[in-house]
Amino acid sequence: MANERILIVEDEPDIVELLRYNLTRDGYDVLQATTGEAALDIIKESSPDLILLDLMLPRIDGLEVCRRVRANADTKHLPIIMLTAKGEEVDIVTGLELGADDYVTKPFSPRILLARVRAVIRRNDADIPGDNDAIQIHNLTIHPGRHEVTVDGEPVTLTRTEFQVLHYLARRPGWVFTRYQIVDAVHGDDYIVTERSVDVQIVGLRKKLDTAGKHIETVRGVGYRFGAP
């Protein structure tokens, strides 16, 4: 049985009951808020393990709730799955750029939603390498402390910005990052990093990494990820 505490932030009673029933049956403890203000109070007081967040809420909407959660040092790593009827590409990109871990559109399958909840919690619990820990994935090895990268044991020369982009993606294989998130994480002294220049950095990385370059995957309309093993 799961022991994680899930906060449902949703103002439609039927959807709340559907979520509560399925989450409880799966072993989760369930908290509920019908407004953004109430959600922020519960997050502060009860420290949930994951938030299921509707976007269209009265007064403070879901995007603003997500923004405030990510801006708070105590909650910035709290997993968030956005659950909403707004399924246009621009809405998905906006949600991901604000820091959502996943995005589920209504109507939804409870089984698929539960699978995504489990995946996000599992991913959040996984050991993420520290800033200076060596990473070995596929045929690629990254040594942050020595600023070294090898592919099949052969050294690869990267610029400082290329190294930072690669390290940022490879630390969380399988995670999708928008160009904005990559820009925010990477500060290039040798290259002005913009959303447009991220594409240039990726092209250069793929070429320099040779056979390992294929593991940097484009997620159309969203951004990039380093393929999971």
Molecular structure report:
By secondary structure, this protein is α/β, with parallel strands linked by helices. The chain folds into 2 domains: 5-125, Rossmann fold; 135-226, Winged helix-like DNA-binding domain superfamily/Winged helix DNA-binding domain (Arc Repressor Mutant, subunit A, Orthogonal Bundle). It has 8 helices and 12 strands. The strands form 3 sheets. Strands 2-1-3-4-5 form a 5-stranded parallel beta sheet, sandwiched between helices. A hairpin with a 4-residue loop joins strand 7 (140-143) and strand 8 (148-151). Helix 2 packs parallel to helix 3. It is elongated. It starts with a strand and ends with a strand.
